[in-house]
Specification:
- Helix content is 0%, strand content 28%.
- The chain contains no helices and 12 strands.
- The radius of gyration is 34 Å and the shape is rod-shaped.
- The chain starts with a strand and ends with a strand.
């Protein structure tokens, strides 16, 4: 026997609820178990809130039964619902999970904190990915690889790169444009030699008196 009414109280731990039946002069049922979908090993647990309009199946000659589900009412209508779409929305409308089968899209909107924890994850974006945030922190405990096949542009107001052991930059050509460049370190070395840029004998590779090269590949100090 199907009945309808308002949920008077719930019990999250036992996944049960009591319903005041409209068609039985407000008679309150006993604790009724809430039915939930179970698909392919996944369980969708839920418990209606007090005041929700619910449909229940009461056992004959008993106050016990099962809560089948909620019913759309004036203040609990689908928010943004449309055909071929699965929609999960919080009561305040601030948290949304939307699966659109027609467009093949997934929208996940969380107004509070969200945690994603997985053993392995593979994220592939076919066209464009846009990440916008106020603060970001990325921690990699072992190894990290970033590969850009064409071009990468990074624009920041202030950038700090710190390597505790070793940093390698491998490129056919490196261009640094800056008003001031400051390199601090114990020793700075490079492959090849650098000739002096000023002085009356700067065009001569070696000293006329000692034969020592005017240029070198190491700079000591800071």
């Amino acid at each position: 026997m199907l009945q309808q009414g308002q949920v008077s109280e719930n019990n999250v731990k036992s996944a049960s609820a009591r319903v005041a039946h409209d068609d039985l002069s407000g008679m309150v049922s006993g604790d009724m178990q809430v039915l939930f979908p179970a698909i392919g090993g996944w369980n969708c647990f839920w418990v209606p809130e007090p005041g929700d309009h619910a449909v229940s199946a009461k056992l004959s000659n008993s106050k016990e039964g099962y809560v089948i589900g909620k019913v759309y009412t004036g203040n609990k209508m689908p928010q943004g619902g449309k055909p071929k779409t699965i929609l999960l929305v919080s009561d305040d409308g601030k948290n949304v999970v939307r699966f659109d089968a027609e467009k093949g899209t997934l929208d996940l909107i969380v107004d509070q904190d969200a945690v994603i924890k997985t053993k392995n994850i593979n994220i592939e974006v076919i066209e464009t990915a846009i990440i916008k945030t106020k603060n970001a922190e990325v921690t990699v405990e072992e190894n990290a690889t970033v590969e850009v096949k064409k071009e990468a542009n990074i624009t920041v107001e202030t950038a700090n790169i710190e390597a505790t052991k070793e940093a390698n930059i491998n490129s056919p050509k490196v261009v640094i444009e800056s008003a001031d460049v400051e390199i601090t370190g114990g020793n700075f070395s490079m492959k090849g030699t650098v000739s002096p840029a000023t002085g009356p004998l700067c065009a001569i590779p070696n000293c006329l008196f000692t034969g020592a090269p005017h240029g070198g590949n190491k700079v000591a100090g800071t």
